[in-house]
Design brief:
Elements lengths: L2 H4 L13 H8 L2 H4 L9 H20 L7 H12 L7 H24 L12 H11 L6 H11 L5 H8 L7 H28 L9
The structure holds ligand CIS.
Length: 209
């Protein structure tokens, strides 16, 4: 079985609203995956993502009936924080979490599309770099960009990465790629819907860290 298929995202309703509880239940499984990657280099990333999820959850559990969808949270915080918003609360946490989710989406899509460095087919550097450039780089100052370059050296081999996604089992590459494609069917629209929500609510910020 695959880690991805164990934690699949649900199909979105026609209005593309994202149910907060379902979303949190699904993304909560993500951080544990970093432990399978075999390098301590990922622990800062894991804890950043964990922090985002914890922050959104903390808001949700205060009043689940009020925060049924992610948009309910953003709208309530916009009213609550006024001029501080959107650089505050769960709105800020989800703003960053969605970038990490976009990174993962582009990385998995690139692997599923068979993009590789023909001279080093067992490296995922090209896939990781593509994901980084499209999802995160513009939000990182030079220091964090340098940290990324260092973390890139700890990136697992393609075969080990696919094995980790298959919970350590030896699975045929084609089967693993099919699982990735299956996972992306609901994952990609969910990430897209969150991006669209930030755009519609004018909640996106482009400062760098
Ligand atoms: C002098 C020596 C100094 C050494 C210092 C070492 C420190 C290590 C720091 C590592 C950086 C780790 C990445 C974290 C970056 C965060 O700064 C950044 C912004 O965070 C946000 C918080 O989330 O900042 C906000 C304030 O402005 C808030 O605090 C917010 O938290 S809140 O609101 O909840 O309180 N965050 C990011 O940029 C998001 C990074 C997401 C990365 C997702 C990566 C998924 C990886 C999937 C693994 C697949 C294997 C791939 C192989 C290689 C992966 C490369 C990973 C690239 C990530 C780049 C990170 C540099």
């Amino acid at each position: 079985m695959s880690v991805l298929l164990d934690n699949q995202f649900k199909e979105l309703p026609p209005d593309k609203s994202v149910d907060t509880k379902t979303f949190l239940d699904t993304v909560s499984h993500l951080p544990a995956f970093f432990d399978c990657l075999g390098s301590k280099a990922f622990s800062a990333i894991k804890s950043d993502i964990n922090g985002n999820i914890t922050k959104i959850k903390a808001v949700y559990v205060k009043d689940p009936a009020k925060y049924v969808t992610l948009q309910d949270i953003l709208e309530a915080e916009r009213a609550e924080y006024a001029s501080e918003w959107p650089k505050v609360g769960a709105t800020l946490a989800l703003m960053w979490l969605k970038r990490g989710l976009r990174f993962i989406q582009i990385l998995l899509q690139s692997l599923a599309d068979g993009e590789k460095d023909e001279n080093n087919p067992n490296l995922i550097k090209v896939n990781v770099t593509k994901a980084y450039e499209q999802a995160l780089k513009r939000y990182h100052g030079w220091m964090v960009q340098r940290i990324f370059s260092a973390v890139l050296f700890a990136a697992p081999y393609r075969s080990n990465f696919l094995k980790a996604l298959s919970k350590g089992e030896e699975v045929k590459e084609e089967e693993c790629l099919a699982n990735i494609r299956h996972f992306l069917v609901n994952y990609t629209p969910t990430v897209d819907a969150i991006y669209e929500m930030y755009m519609n609510l004018n909640a996106e910020l482009d400062y760098t860290v």
